[in-house]
Design brief:
Elements lengths: L1 E6 L5 H17 L3 E6 L9 E2 L3 H10 L3 H5 L10 E2 L2 H11 L4 H13 L8 H10 L4 H10 L1 H15 L7 E6 L8 E4 L4 H7 L2 H5 L3
Parallel strand pairs: 1-2
Antiparallel strand pairs: 1-5, 3-4, 5-6
Helix pairs in contact: 1-5, 4-5, 4-6, 4-8
Length: 206
Amino acid sequence: MIQIQIWGDFECPYSYLQTVALAKLKERYQDGIEIIWRAIELTPTIGTMPPSDSYLNKLQQASLEPIVQEEKLALATPAFLTYTWLAQESVCFANKHGKSLQLALAIFKAVFSQGGNISNEDEIITLAEQVGIDPNALREAFDDGVVTKQAIADEEEFKANGFQGVPAMLIGEKNFSPKSFMPVTGYTNIDELEKLIPIKSLLGNN
């Protein structure tokens, strides 16, 4: 089985596109691929702030990627940028339930097409429940700090790998040494991803 670990920011349009591409890859190869979400908050924010000019330029550039039209993705400008740590923790929690891709996509849609406030715990809980995650279990995970520790460990590994931006990925055989995983930075489309992974291993799982 191929494992792909992704660090992405929920307000980054390219992280959204990368997550959509991974979801399509997962759909294509089913159990041959495991996607693990890793937490990162590159620009911690207190309260809210308006999108900067550089952010708006990045959003415009991302909207030109072919996957946006192919998948009919909405990339509306967020009214504000905000604290994303709860969202990161929630998707880390979703990993062990096999729901990380579904929840990540729901959060991205909330940001880029629904005007959602992903710093709000109740809103995150609602999104998690919509993709089949027990809301009470998620609240407990927030309260007991277990997912916080995992998210902090994810951030430390992000830095240890020398990553400086998102999306960032590690790709390799699930049961092989972590040192054998290939680091990949920047948005990588489906065709490019397939060139990076051993397709024969994937076909052997179908």
